[in-house]
Specification:
It is built from two helices and four strands. By secondary structure, the protein is α+β, with helices and mostly antiparallel strands. Helix 1 packs parallel to helix 2.
Length: 106
């Protein structure tokens, strides 16, 4: 998994980098085949914004969150991302097709 953390109008400190990395482990625990993760942290006046794009086989999952506190924005972002990844994983597992002999003819 490639992880890219960038900051717009803010410096990404080692503390922020460690916090985001530890939170993203929760997502990778649910889903092993994550190809690439891009995190963008932005400061716009009084709003802190966090965005993430997760590339998984066959799809890119994009989530963003805003808050007054950057750490709260990251927490909200990870919660949303976790739900999206679980939804994607569930859809991927549900796409098995029954064979014709398993269908009951009426």
């Amino acid at each position: 998994m490639n992880l890219h953390i960038t900051g717009h109008h803010l410096e990404v400190t080692p503390a922020i980098r460690d916090y985001v990395t530890s939170k993203l482990e929760r997502v990778t625990r649910h889903f092993d085949s994550v190809i690439d993760v891009n995190v963008i942290l932005t400061v716009e006046k009084l709003k802190q914004k966090a965005e993430v794009t997760v590339r998984v086989p066959g799809k890119d999952i994009h989530v963003d969150a805003e808050d007054n506190d950057l750490y709260a924005a990251v927490d909200s972002l990870i919660d949303k991302l976790d739900r999206q990844v679980q939804k994607y994983k569930q859809k991927a597992q549900d796409h098995h097709h029954d064979t014709i002999k398993n269908h009951v003819s009426e």
